[in-house]
Amino acid sequence: MPKLRAAAVSFLNAWPLTAGLEGSDRFELVLAEPSRCASLLDEGAVDLALLPVGALAGKDYEIVPGMAVGADGPVQTVLLVGEQSPAVWDEVFLDTASRTSVILSRVILDAMGVRPRYTNLPADEGVPRAVGTKGALVIGDRAFDVRKGQILDLGREWNQLTGLPMLFAVWAARPGVLAPEDLRELARAAQVGLGMRTELAQRFARLRGGDPERYRRYLTQKIRYGVGPHEMTGLETFLRTAAEKGFLPPTTVRWADDRPRRPAPRAAAPVDALLARAAAGERLDADEATRLDESAPLLELGLAADARRRALHPDGVVTYIVSRNVNYTNVCTTACHFCAFYRPRGHAESYVLTREELAGKIEETLRLGGIELLLQGGLHPDLGIEWYEELFRWVKSTYPAIHLHALSPEEIWHVARTSDLGLDATIDRLVAAGLDSIPGGGAEVLDDEVRRRIAPLKCSTDEWLAVMRTAHRHGLKSTGTLMFGVGEEPRHRVAHLLRLRELQDETGGFTAFICWPFQAAHTRLEPSDGSAHAYLRTSALARLVLDNVPHLQASWVTMGGGIAQAALHMGCDDFGQVMIEENVVSAAGTTFAMDSEEVERHIRDAGFLPARRNMRYQRLGGQAA
User: Fold this and answer.
1) DSSP state of 221
2) Which of 182, 221, 436, 469 is deepest in the core (most CB within 10 A)?
């Protein structure tokens, strides 16, 4: 199969998106200046280009979702420079290497009330002429060496003007050129490159001189590579603003479609017969499970799931655990479209918890009867395995009674990649440091068609499952999860459940399954269906499909107590956590809360007996109350 030709800039800020393509069997790299990349794509000389976003105007190009070269504040390498204040500039020399920065310069200066004459000129000629009442634009690696009396960092200026990040370049292609496999390869390459940023900074310093630490900070703190809701708003605002001022034609942003052709319709299976078989414990295949998801009435689906729950847990006990969900950092590089919690590094609201802050949270948890610390966070670019080892050893040595339920598969994959370790070695070291079990976060929908659309910089389905498989093989127990309502179809949800079931057949490592609908507030991803009806039928279906996973949790944290009580009659046998703290779901606008007494009241009012448990579902304190 011939390789696709991909044009990209040779600037340092593009290296994390292109380094992983070296040796790719799907892409051949062509290096050029940003404006030339746009011309090559216009001319049909390449199939794909890391394109200045200003070059999207008037085109029907499709943008690869999830990754870009951008900044949310100072960028350091897109500068307007001169000797005197921009207020007196009567001419500005515009670097011919860029289209986006040329338009951004005009937007920023226009907002300042400065309207000089613009002259296109290469930066190596324009910057020396930026004297007196003249200014110049300089972009890319040349900007590292600029020394002028007046410097406007256009990333900072745009952020101060709008409060939004600025995307400078995106992967773009003509419609229909990119296959789903191409999008996955670009995402894989970005994951590899983001993990190499320290090495890339050192390589750049060897080639051109300068301080490698300065370049590392530039790549990790100044340049943003993920595209989430905040970044999408920034891109749309830039294009709209430029069009309103007449600097660009109106532009509609189009994202590459990674959905394969729909399968041919199946013959309809008899729903009543399928429900009877599932209620009796017979295993459903993919077609049968999809048929139930599409066609089974909620009441009948719930009754079948309740029959399975009663067969598996006939004593009428509903368990729960007292736990604290601590998010040790909100800094994350993946910029998932559905996440309202993450912040880029350097953001005013970003944090990494101190030992003192963690100590206060753990001690309060113990006073309230808590036994578990659910410790998860964003994919922080600078936290390697040594940081987690030190943290875990400190927790276990200081608070030996705490069960450390920590690090989603996504986080473990990130730690392994950034620390240049295999999964076995990574998990061995984390277990030796004190890791007791693994939560099932980051699964979202375990179908790459969906994952590439909502979280393209996250690990793939196979990678998520590989972490779980390795963890189970090392004796760790874990939970499985599903976040639905992100535009997926029944076949995607069923594929997710079947992948969990297959792994459970292999390892037996999942203690429970939890599902919840996507919470859309403060995000840019439109929910497809997060209703109580959708939640109850998805939970009931999971009880019928996951015949080898012993427990199902009701998600009162997202749905509230009443819906969670209904779920106990539709397959669930556990009421989840008394969450002393929760940040991620509440960041998206959902704020249900209960203490132990309230949890037990809900369980009793639903007709069951409450009992506390640990992560392995061993009941605590003798018999159920």
Assistant:
1) I
2) 182
pLDDT tens digits along 404-455:
999 999 899 888 888 888 899 999 999 999 999 999 988 889 988 888 777 7
In a 10 Å sphere around its CB, with 0-12 CB exposed, 13-18 middle and 19+ buried, how is residue 389 labelled? middle
- Start-end of H helices in 369-443: 385-398, 409-418, 423-433
Note the pLDDT of residue 594.
81
Pairwise CA distance, residues 509 & 481, whole Å: 13
The pLDDT tens digits for 348-387 are 777 888 899 999 999 998 998 899 999 988 777 778 899 9
**What is residue 559's predicted lDDT score, i.e. its pLDDT?**
87
Contacts of 432 (CB under 8 A, 6+ apart): 389
Per-residue tokens: 352 = 């990494």
CB 255 within 8 A of CB 189: no
Between β-strands 78-82 and 134-139, what pairing exists: parallel, antiparallel or unpaired? Answer: antiparallel
Pairing between β-strand 166-173 and β-strand 62-71 as defined by DSSP bridges: antiparallel
- Cα separation, 612 vs 607, in Å, equals 16
Distances (CA, A) of 6 to 15, 27, 223, 329: 13, 6, 21, 35
DSSP symbol at 263: P
Predicted TM-score (pTM) of the model is: 0.61
**Backbone φ and ψ of 315, nearest 5°:** -85, 0
Residue type, 573: D
Dihedral sign from CA coordinates of 509, 512, 518, 523: negative
C-alpha distances in angstroms, 20 versus 37, 148, 189?
19, 36, 4
Amino acid identity of 440? Answer: G
At 373, list the tokens.
Answer: 């610390």
CA–CA gap between residue 292 and residue 367 (Å, rounded): 46
Closest CA to 238 of 159, 344, 172: 159
E-strand stretches of 191-295: 224-226
Residue 609 to residue 599: CA distance in whole angstroms: 11
Compute the C-alpha angle 596/600/606, nearest 5°.
150
The span from the CA of 203 to the CA of 479, in Å, is 41
Instruction: For residue 384, report the phi and psi dihedrals to the nearest 5 degrees.
Output: -95, -175
Look-up of token digits 């669930």: 572
Q: Which residue stretches of the chain have pLDDT < 70?
A: 1, 228-229, 257-269, 333-346, 519-530, 579, 581-593, 622-625
